[in-house]
Each structure stands twice: as C-alpha cells, then as structure tokens.
Design brief:
- With 91 residues, the chain is an alpha+beta fold.
- It has a domain of 59 residues.
- Helices cover 33% and strands 11% of the residues.
- It has three helices and three strands; from the N terminus they run E-H-H-E-E-H.
- The chain has a three-stranded antiparallel β-sheet.
- Helix 1 packs across helix 2.
- The longest helix is centred in the middle third of the chain and has 14 residues.
- The protein is elongated.
Length: 91
C-alpha cells in the first residue's frame, strides 16, 4: 500500500506552501491526482512520482540525468539585445 501524503507534506516535497497547492488546484493547474478521505485531500506517493516524471518529460527535462553544463555557444553576447536607448545606444 502506498504512503498517503497530506497537503502539507506535498507542499514540502514540491518546495511550495499548502496555499500554493490549493491555488494550483483552484486554477486548474497541473497537480497529481488527489483522494478525498474524511474531508482531507491526500496524495499517493506513487501518483506524485509518476506526475513528476510526466512533468519532466513535458518540460523536456531528462528526470534521471544530471543537467548538462552550459555550452560555450550560449555565451551572453549572443542574447537578444534589450530595449534600445533613446540616444541610439551611445553612453
């Protein structure tokens, strides 16, 4: 049988607050499926793990691999310029 987590435990696991979890539910944002038992919202540990894996895939993150170091081709001078200045960019 899976461990059931409370909203406080889920919030701690996701590094947010219980209020943040409630807001996500209210706004229809992605969360693992919840059970309502005795008036409390509870989440299965396996559902949370599966949801995190699916979110990683959706966001293009390889969940099991360490993040790749920033390559040299992503240097700051290749970024788009910000808002142009009124004086044509001269300092």
């Amino acid at each position: 049988m899976d461990k059931l987590l409370t909203i406080e435990e889920l919030a701690e696991l996701l590094r947010t607050t219980p209020r943040g979890i409630r807001l996500r539910r209210h706004r229809g944002r992605s969360l693992p499926p919840a059970l309502r038992l005795g008036g409390k919202l509870l989440w299965r540990a396996s559902d949370i793990s599966n949801w995190l894996d699916a979110e990683a895939v959706r966001q293009g993150i390889n969940a099991g691999a360490p993040s790749a170091p920033e390559s040299a081709s992503q240097s700051p001078h290749l970024r788009k310029p910000g808002r142009p200045r009124k004086n044509g960019g001269a300092s």
